Amino acid sequence: MLNSIKVRASQGSQFIPDPRKADPVGFRARPVIADRACDSGCSACVSACPTRAIALDPVRIDLGRCVMCGDCAPVCQAEKLSFTNDFRIAATDRQALVVSSARPSVDPVKVSAALRQRFGRSLKLRSVSAGGCNACELEINALGNVNFDIGRYGIDMVASPRHADGLVLTGPLTRNMAQALQLCWDGMPEPKLVIAVGACAISGSPFEEGGALERSFLDRFAPTLYVPGCPAHPLTFISGILDLLGIPS
């Protein structure tokens, strides 16, 4: 018993009072692209990127493809690239996930008055892994733990599509999951929304050239919210969904 008390005391408080003001030390998230010239003819960052998230002229990074591996920063001789722990990188528009020196931050999530009126006090979400590696799925499971406690905002994960207002989509959307995904969506009552979580779900990266994907679902039903990362951090998810619903701190 005494050992348990000592362990608990050493851990301190694990509860995060305001997830949008957290400071996750050591977490690699939003990249920073310095406003300085690249070395002539250098494309080392593009070559180092495993998901083709980086483009040149000007240098820009697509967070919908970026897995935050950090491999690009060490090879940049001009020291143009670095990463911060800024987890507030969710977006309501796909193109808003592209950052550059001229556009250093992701565009703020647009508050939806209609969604706030409908789901501002109660939002039920159904999670579907469409071929994911289970990393984003584990982070979504963590949303309900003592650290993040998303239930305090009236947001809960539910087991049945019949009880869900929104679909939390992870994984690159494989062909084998296409029918199950559609059945889940069809089983959800209107109105409903899609939340794409992780680089796999947002862009299919790095698997989009494989023959196992079937991503037409996202052509038919565009996500209302994009939550980038590999895996996406619970803080990114929480801040994004709270901003979308206009829920104050």
CATH architecture of the domain at 113-245: 3-Layer(aba) Sandwich
**SS-derived structural category:** alpha/beta
Number of helices: 9
**Estimated helix fraction:** 25-40%
What is the global morphology?
Answer: globular
State the end-to-end CA separation: 37 Å
Q: Output the radius of gyration.
A: 19 Å
Low-confidence stretches: none
> What's the CATH C level of the domain at 113-245?
Alpha Beta
Spatially, the strands of the biggest sheet line up as: 7-6-8-9-10
Structure commentary:
This is Ni,Fe-hydrogenase III small subunit/Pyruvate/2-oxoacid:ferredoxin oxidoreductase delta subunit. Residues 29-59, 60-86 form the 4Fe-4S ferredoxin-type domain. The protein is α/β, with parallel strands linked by helices and 249 residues long. The chain contains nine helices and ten strands. β2 (54-55) and β3 form a beta hairpin. The longest helix is centred in the C-terminal third of the chain and has 12 residues, at 234-245. The chain is globular.
Q: Summed up, what is this model?
A:
This protein is of the alpha/beta class.
Question: Which features does this protein show?
Answer:
pyruvate, Complex_I_20kDa-like, single chain, metal ion binding, alpha/beta, 3-stranded antiparallel beta sheet, 5-stranded parallel beta sheet, 15% strand, Ni,Fe-hydrogenase III small subunit/Pyruvate/2-oxoacid:ferredoxin oxidoreductase delta subunit, 10 strands, Rossmann fold, 249 residues, metal-binding
Question: Which helices and strands, and how do they pair?
Answer:
Layout: H1 2-11, E1 31-33, H2 44-48, E2 54-55, E3 60-62, H3 72-75, E4 81-83, E5 98-100, H4 113-119, E6 123-129, H5 135-141, E7 155-157, E8 166-170, H6 178-187, E9 193-197, H7 198-203, H8 216-220, E10 225-227, H9 234-245
Parallel strand pairs: 6-7, 6-8, 8-9, 9-10
Antiparallel strand pairs: 1-4, 2-3, 3-5
